[in-house]
Design brief:
Shape: globular
Strand order of the largest sheet: 1-17-16-15-14-13-12-2-7-8
Number of domains: 1
Order of helices and strands: EHEEEEEHEHEEEEHEHEEHHEEEHHH
Strand content: 25-35%
CATH superfamily: Ribokinase
CATH topology: UDP-N-acetylmuramoyl-L-alanine:D-glutamate ligase
CATH class: Alpha Beta
Structural class: alpha/beta
Helix content: 25-40%
Largest sheet: 10 strands, mixed
CATH architecture: 3-Layer(aba) Sandwich
Radius of gyration: 20 Å
Length: 338
């Protein structure tokens, strides 16, 4: 097993990112409506009826979250054509989510479905906004589906995936739900990837519940998810290389402050250290920025070693954006490569 060292230069960075406007990427996964409720503590009241404190909301903003955060990052990178594959409910949050997605440049909504049987997956985030202070998030209010995704909807999503497979440069598959079979990434959806995954196709998967039982596609995971998949692995690098060789697909492992490890199908591994912290950080959205940048760089014919450098740069940009689920632009990342 060989370990390659690599350092991105500005010319190569430009060469890769110049290909982004021509890319077509599908993002298959659980889309949430991220609703931010901005609270002004100076307008606090006490309820006459209950005697409890009242938080007065002075601004509400909604944006696509979960798989939608990856779409936001791909938009920020200037990827030309984006295909969200997922669903929302026929409710107010669904209206906000659908509207927010369809307004983004390059987004094609042909395979984003509305279902009367589903609620829109929603993260409602109350934020206390005080002058000169970092926004402070209160307890989040979530809306999820706790029943199995209807069979008809599962079939529609599988058809969408197969339809797009030969018309895009990369497919991202993101499982964000805690309860199996209640979101977009069901066993039937995973089965639909088996016939479309080829060595020439970038299909990159990630699941917060771990990738055990997933088909042989490119894997992206954090250390906790890696240990779920390989619980007996004592040496991460060796185990990742073995996994990549067995599946004949790439493996990417994010390791927080230790950066990112990549393993190629030939067993070669590469690591890229995390960039230094530059002040206060907020980790929300960093993993999604990594996923978006791995997929777009690989689709633009970057090597695994180059792709993890892109991903680390994007994570560094997003980490320093406080109080929101941030994104990283090509310009912001390019500044880090000098």
């Amino acid at each position: 097993m060989q370990k390659r060292e690599h350092e991105m230069d500005s010319q190569r960075f430009q060469q890769i990112t110049d290909r982004y406007p021509a890319l077509r990427i599908a993002v298959v996964g659980d889309y949430s409506c991220d609703r931010y409720l901005e609270i002004d503590p100076a307008k606090a009241e006490t309820s006459i009826e209950t005697g409890l404190p009242v938080h007065n909301i002075t601004r509400v903003r909604a944006q696509p979250g979960a798989a939608g955060t990856i779409i936001n990052n791909l938009v920020a990178l200037g990827v030309g054509e984006l295909w969200p594959v997922g669903f929302c409910g026929c409710d107010g949050e669904g209206y906000e989510l659908y509207s927010a997605l369809e307004q983004l440049p390059g987004v094609r909504m042909n395979y984003f479905l509305k279902s009367e049987e589903q609620r829109t997956f929603t993260y409602c985030k109350p934020l206390v906004i005080e002058p000169g202070q970092t926004p402070r998030e209160l307890n989040r209010l979530d809306s999820k589906n706790w029943h199995p995704t209807p069979t008809t909807l599962q079939n529609q999503l599988a058809v969408a995936l197969r339809s797009l497979a030969t018309n895009v440069d990369a497919i991202i598959i993101l499982d964000q739900v805690d309860e199996p079979e209640t979101g977009v990434i069901t066993q039937s959806l995973l089965q639909a990837t088996v016939g479309i995954a080829t060595p020439e196709t970038t299909i990159l998967g990630d699941s917060r519940r771990g990738l055990k039982g997933w088909p042989a596609i490119d894997y992206k995971m954090n250390l906790e998810e890696f240990h779920k998949l390989a619980p007996e692995a004592n040496y991460i690098e060796k185990a990742a290389a073995a996994m990549a060789r067995e599946n004949q697909r790439r493996v990417f492992i994010t390791m927080a402050s230790d950066g990112i490890l990549a393993a190629d199908p030939d067993g070669t591994t590469t690591s890229s250290p995390a960039l230094p912290v530059r002040g206060e950080i907020d980790i929300v959205g960093a993993g999604d920025a990594v996923m978006a940048n791995l997929a777009s760089a690989l689709a633009a014919k970057a090597t695994s070693a180059e792709a993890i450098e892109f991903a680390n740069a994007a994570a560094s940009v997003v980490l320093h954006k406080l109080g929101t689920t941030g994104t990283a632009t090509v310009e912001e990342m390019g500044a880090l490569f000098g």
